[in-house]
Amino acid sequence: MKLRKLGTTSVGGKCPTLYETDSGDIVVQGYRLTDAEALAQLEDVLPNETFVIVPRELMVRFAPKE
How do the domains of the chain map onto residue ranges? Predict the structure, then answer.
């Protein structure tokens, strides 16, 4: 799988960052969601899934528009 960096709102090379795969899917680099109350509200979670926090500004600026 090849990744293309779409953009970042980070400073100093840290997360968050958005990437696009060669198949058109989006990969999100961000801080892992660890808040127990928030995690308890998630539904249909598979064992290999994880959750990251994505700043709205990152999505507005760099998420694909189509």
Answer: 3-62
